[in-house]
Amino acid sequence: MRPDTPAENVDHTAEAARLERTAGLYPEDAEALLLRAAAHLELSGDRPAATTLYDRLLSTPATLENPSLVRALKASNLWEYGHEAEARAIIDGIRTTAPREPGPWVIIAESLEAHDELESAEETFTEAARLLLPDAAEPPQALHPLLYGRHRVRRMRGLPHDDWDTLADTLHTAPVTLDELHDPKRVWSLGSDNPAELEAEISRLRTELGAYREALSRPFPVAVLHWPAPELAELLSAYPALSTEYPSHELHLATIESSLRELSTSGTDNLGIVTGTVPSYEAFAASEATSPDDPTLLPQYATTLAARGKAIAWPPGRGAGCWCGEGRGYDACHGSGSL
User: Fold this and answer.
1) Is 31 a residue whose pLDDT tops 70?
2) Is the pLDDT of residue 248 over 90?
3) C-alpha dihedral over 40, 46, 47, 49, to 10 degrees?
4) Which of helix, strand or coil describes residue 135?
5) Cα separations (Å) of 34 from 22, 89, 108, 142?
6) Cis link prior to 139 (omega < 30° from 0)?
7) pLDDT of residue 210
8) Burial (Cβ within 10 Å: 0-12, 13-18, ≥19) of residue 249
9) Which of 69, 113, 223, 329 is most buried, taking the most CB atoms under 10 A from its CB?
10) Distance between CA 155 and CA 23 in Å, rounded?
11) To 10 degrees, what angle do helices 278-287 and 297-307 make?
């Protein structure tokens, strides 16, 4: 599928098949590729086939980066085509194991919410918030959906704002406030005969739809290649000709940041960083029938990694760690300069 293909023109069944074939070529990326394939199968309406892919991944849990995420997606999918009891059992199991990543929590809480289990959904969001939210005033971007989802469910239940709801309001930057987006009375306005009320609701829905479309259908990032210090040392030892591209690791890191800032200033959005490894790079060079010491291969390698879902977004979200892996926050590390 071309990155600029409109979502409504996607052949989800064909795209799922393509991703499955790609997973066979790149087994190290099979988890990410098969999860995307399963999502396309769900969108096509073939939910049993999606469950088959989730089961395929879960058959070797030790090889998965995030088995809780796969289980959560499976539970959500099962519930959508009538397997409620099994879905509930999986959801209970995820809550018991208390994963340290936000994704599984958001998926199971939204599944409960979608089936009008609002109290259980709120409890699930709150459990996750207690477990994962740091003491810092600005949680990392990955945790924002927890706060937004919790805010939404509590608003639907008519509960008063607490400190986490207030924090969610602060983090949300869209033109329409969270209180408006999550107002349970909005549904009644859809049946109104008042043109002004209908126009206001259409505007709110467009805001939500725009955010969803941006998240779901944007292409893979324009990515810059990052080599951790040990990998760069190994790369230059094996292929000294590349030393002209990488005079030092410190300069390499500085160049990544400056290149991304230049791209951002020029109007390029959806930027990212991919991390290379020497074995992966050598395998890519072999697949291209090119010597690894050819510097023109480096940007192609970066693009291939981004297309395989290996990119992390740049700049990191507020409060997130720096992309360089030094353990400091981005704002105190490579993000200390003005954007």
Assistant:
1) yes
2) yes
3) -90
4) coil
5) 9, 23, 20, 22
6) no
7) 61
8) middle
9) 223
10) 41
11) 100
